[in-house]
Amino acid sequence: MSTYTIPVGPLHVALEEPMYFQVQVEGETIVGLEITAGHVHRGLEYLAMKRNIYQNLTLLERLCSLCSNNHPFTYCMALEKIAGIKIPERAEYLRVIADEIKRIASNLFNIAMLAHIIGFDSLFMHVMEVREIVQDTKETIYGNRMDLAANCIGGVKYDLSDEKIKYLIKQLDKLKKPLEEIIDIYMNNKFVRARTEGVGILPKDEALRYGVVGPVARGSGVNNDVRVKSPYAAYDRLKVNVPLETGCDVRARAIVRLREIQEAINIIQQCLKDLPDGPTCIDYLPEIPAGEAVAKSEAPRGELIYYLRTNGSDIPERIKWRVPTYMNWEALKVMMPGNKVADIPLIINSIDPCISCTER
Amino acid sequence: MASFLKIALRNLFKGPTTDPYPFGETFVPKGLRGKAKYNAAACIACRMCEYVCAGGAIQIREVADKSGLEFILWHNTCTFCGLCEYYCPTKAIRLTEDYHTAHRQEDKYRYVEKGFIKYVNCAECGTPMVPISPELLQRAYRQVNREIERLRHLCPKCRQKRALR
């Protein structure tokens, strides 16, 4: 059988983002893969170094849409580390709540995309409809469906009144039953199983070798959840159960994401129960001395690392971030070979790629 | 498969979940971050909003005849992040729940929120200055007595003199 190289992309393969792959196939079977990056470079690192620390809160939130809360969150943690700011305890809990709400919406989106790719569009519609519960919650509590604008230097910009807490609890309860139904479908529906089981295998040793992060790692049985391994914000006071799967395939990663939604609901409920009183932000405008810091957090796609260097002025001297997709897309070289051409979008979607963060 | 059929049927009987916008009303929660509204009477021209605005949508500059300061916010450049509102000490700038931003192409550069802060003259020396808004006094003193009320009409230099006397 002869070998061909087929181009996939740069127009969207799974999500509406430009990715370019050159896939070597032998008949219908994939034998090799080349990734060409850089189609959506926007010069954001440079832009961030031209703006002051406050403007960057807004700029960094627009780095990515689905994990938009994690960027300003991690950036704030890096700044606070440099300036030695201790944020109020209530703010730590509120940051966790914002983060977990975003995680629910992000994971539901990826799960819906999976259904769309395997041609199960009625399931796609249903999951997106369930996701609207979360979108409405975000709009009501934060004022926007995607960009929460929850973080500011030294705390958070929003507060939860008793009324809003009640609303949030109600919305989370509303989510639970449809979520269980969805999990049942993804685990047991024979069409979903036929397309996802045994596809895009990433064995545990390869997962460790490539250093994959987030649900991709946890789908291969590797637990490197930052929330547990090096807790930040209020995570050291919360009980976080990390769902692990050993299937190593597309299905295992999808189930990890679904279980994480359940866990996120659980974490928000814990936060609302323990939510301490007090201020939500420091009451002065901090001065940021010269220094450097590294901060990390667990974004919906995995570990997000920020490096920040300041020089005493209000404009960062260097700001750099390593996003989860950067680690995960290399592992596609292991997941792809041996699978069929029709599974390419499905496997790409299973790492939940975020190209706009990765190529900024 | 049967389990999903049940859900699909349920959704079918539930009817559409989308809103009939723009022909009908749509979901607008209280606290939605929409178009910003500016109140010149409360503004103290500290320029914090101009400083924190990531898009550079806000400008405060002196008008040509030097009679006051003009505030301009370009709605088309605004990202509705709400930093200006958050850092405004007197809440002179607020995000409204109005999210309607459709306008004609010819109005592109006129689609702005504007305000004018007219300078007042110092009661003692007559130097033009930005008026001190009641919102700022409220924030600084909580209870404003007659002495503070008098200081309010003085420029910073005269205020210093009065305080040292």
UniProtKB/TrEMBL annotation, chain A:
InterPro entries: ComplexI_49kDa-like, NADH_Q_OxRdtase_suD, Ni-dep_hyd_lsu, NiFe-Hase_large. Fe cation binds at C67, C357. Mg(2+) binds at E45. GO terms for molecular function: NAD binding; nickel cation binding; oxidoreductase activity, acting on NAD(P)H; quinone binding. The keyword Transport does not apply. It holds the Pfam family Complex1_49kDa. Ni(2+) binds at C64, C67, C354. It comes from the Bacteria. Its cofactor is Ni(2+); Fe cation. Keywords: Iron, Magnesium, Metal-binding, Nickel, Oxidoreductase. Residues 118-282, 287-360 form the NADH-quinone oxidoreductase subunit D domain. PANTHER family: FORMATE HYDROGENLYASE SUBUNIT 5-RELATED, HYDROGENASE-4 COMPONENT G. This is Carbon monoxide-induced hydrogenase. It comes from Carboxydothermus islandicus.
TrEMBL record, chain B:
GO terms for molecular function: 4 iron, 4 sulfur cluster binding; metal ion binding; oxidoreductase activity, acting on NAD(P)H. This is 4Fe-4S ferredoxin. It comes from the Bacteria. InterPro entries: 4Fe4S_Fe-S-bd, 4Fe4S_Fe_S_CS, NADH_quinone_OxRdtase_chainI. Residues 34-63, 69-98 form the 4Fe-4S ferredoxin-type domain. Keywords: 4Fe-4S, Iron, Iron-sulfur, Metal-binding. The keyword Iron-sulfur applies. PANTHER family: NADH DEHYDROGENASE UBIQUINONE IRON-SULFUR PROTEIN 8, MITOCHONDRIAL. One of its GO terms (cellular component) is membrane.
